[in-house]
Amino acid sequence: MTASIAAEAPPLRVERLTLAQGLARAARGARPFAALSYGADGNNSWISGVSARVLLDSEPVVDLWHAGKAVQSGTTGVVRWRTDGHWLLGVVDLDENAVGEDLTALSYRAYHNVFEAMKHAGCPHLLRIWNYLPRINADGGGMERYRQFNTGRQQAFLEAGQAAFEGAPAACALGVHEGALCVRFLAGRMPPVPVENPRQVSAYHYPSDYGPRSPTFSRAALAELGAGQVALFISGTASIVGHQTVHAGDVQAQLAETLVNLRTVIAAANQRTSAQFSLEHSDAVVYVRRPADAPGIRQQLEQALGKGSRFMRQAVYLEADICRSDLLVEIEAHATEAGELAE
């Protein structure tokens, strides 16, 4: 972050609590800048969520984002947003049945409005995006719905002059069984530092076998948050080597491969910053296609990461479809550590 912007920008901080704890804190007057919940819809102006079913005995959780005091909220097209002038959190919920557009047009409109909101707020750089699509693997009329989504998303990126390839933000795209197209995004005044996984082809360089437009995201992204803190945002990560799914049908092998990919991208990120991250000390969301697999997934994670690790204490397990029909599990994570980005 440049010295001038760093001096004036309020630090951004995130903490994970159960949803009940977050709501109780807000009721006592400690309302955050904004919040993203996992496992429950948001029910007020400052919190938004995704209503995927929580698995195992985990509770819905909420990531509370704390920023500057002078927070404004508003609407730009289909985007609802909150900003302190330096950081921007926005939300899109678009119901295909209500608007009568296919998913390509819908995702284009969503992202076109996202970029308009960012321009309005003076926060031109996307840092992290969360996408949730109903019936992600279903046929959308000659093309898989995820591929329709990718087509509309990338077109909006290109028209807005946003980084659709190198420099793209961290992101995930998961399938929910029903409901609206949900987009949640974090933007700021400085661009993130993209991180790729040397074991994988960058998603934006996938061959045309995966659709007419490639997915628009980096495997991870680093961002300075102010107050000497650096964030690592890890995109949804699964059992992909090169550009191909490996271990089809074997959830244990897929999870093991996913952990290798997570550790590899974290190692790549650690080369770009003096902050040093670890998988064990991150806040994760574990997306599980088949609910019956969840107990075994948690047990395998405990063995790999330690039952007492931050990952295991803070993780939430959600039922969701993964962007490829042969993938059974996906993990996203974020962490903050003291440090600065490398020159």
TrEMBL record:
InterPro entries reported in the protein's UniProt record: FkbO_Hyg5-like_N (IPR049368), RutC-like_sf (IPR035959)
Domain of life: Bacteria
Residues annotated as domain Chorismatase FkbO/Hyg5-like N-terminal: 63-187
One Pfam family from the record: FkbO_Hyg5-like_N
Protein name listed in UniProt: Chorismatase FkbO/Hyg5-like N-terminal domain-containing protein
Protein species of origin: Variovorax humicola
